[in-house]
Amino acid sequence: MKFLTISDFLGMSDQCVPSLKRAFHHATSGRYLDLPQEIREWEEDRVNGAAYLARKAVDLAAAHTQSGELSEDELSIAQSIAILRPSMVPIVNAMNEFDRRIKHEGYGQIEQVKDELLKSLTDEGNRCVELGYELVMNMYKAKASSTEFVIGTFSRSSTLKSILQRIIESSDDVSAKVRVVCSQSTPGDEGILMATDITGASYLSDEEFQQQVIDGKMDVVIVGADCVLSEGNGVVNKVGSKVLASVCKQAGVPIISSADRWKLWSDIYCPPLEDIFELIPSELFDHVLVPKDEEER
User: Are 255 and 245 in contact (CB under 8 A)?
Assistant: First the structure.
């Protein structure tokens, strides 16, 4: 038996089981891949949500993909990006689609593929915003006789920001004031940033936020999603979401998870979970909002 260092193993040009290096990179989440610095900087982003990072991933894949055949052990740039953030399913789905399109249409179509993927990500995100806006606005209008309508949220999501900002702007002519409260969302504290993203929003520590839910001071809580499993088998989101959903359920406060179709995961089993993500049973949510497929509409 011969033991090798990781660098020696990765430097082997022969005498290696086919695709073993690819499997190694998947198992180590791309830690030992030789990648451009801007991709590594993108990988370290822990404050922006999956929809935002998926768009960045498409830009990076288009900028760094080079023509040429890959060996059995080589990963494409898009595949490399996908394994860096495996829990954020829109990134994985977008990178898979990028590679599929390039393989079918050729390297000369990289810019067109990029533009069309970005458009699809935007369009699906807008459909998700519309669905979330309509549901929460209906809840808001049902309580229009009240003086205040409090919406709680968790972590940081560009999709939720759009939903909440639109609700605030639409509520100006109605008597009940909309107030948004963000949970701090430890670890990472993205909720503090989310509170600066939304007009008039404030933030509370996660414990204070949950107490507000228990005390009946929230009308609805809305969170995002990084992955929605098939057949209603659960939602992947930032750690802390499961406890929050359980607290909402016990307190009788409706909680919504909002996701676009790029976040759908075709497997009934969860994708690899990074340490800042967890699986939440679908039944803990009152609504898991995903726009219908165009053929189902």
Answer: yes
Show Cβ contacts of residue 214 under 8 Å, excluding neighbours closer than 6 positions: 247, 250, 251
Residue 164: CA count within 13 A, CB half-sphere: 33
Query: Per residue in 144-160, is it b (16+ CB within 10 Å) or e — as a string?
Result: eeeeebbbbbbbbbbbb
The Cβ of residue 290 has, within 10 Å, a number of other Cβ atoms equal to 20
Is there a contact between 254 and 220 (Cβ–Cβ < 8 Å)?
Answer: yes
pLDDT tens readout for residues 125-171:
999 999 999 999 999 988 766 778 999 999 999 999 999 999 998 87
- Cα distance between residue 97 and residue 95, in whole Å: 5
> Based on the number of CB atoms within 10 Å of its own CB, is 178 exposed (0-12), middle (13-18) or buried (19 or more)?
buried
HSE (side-chain half, CA atoms, 13 Å) at 181? 22
The pLDDT tens digits of the residues spanning 60-90 come to: 999 999 876 666 667 899 999 999 999 999 9
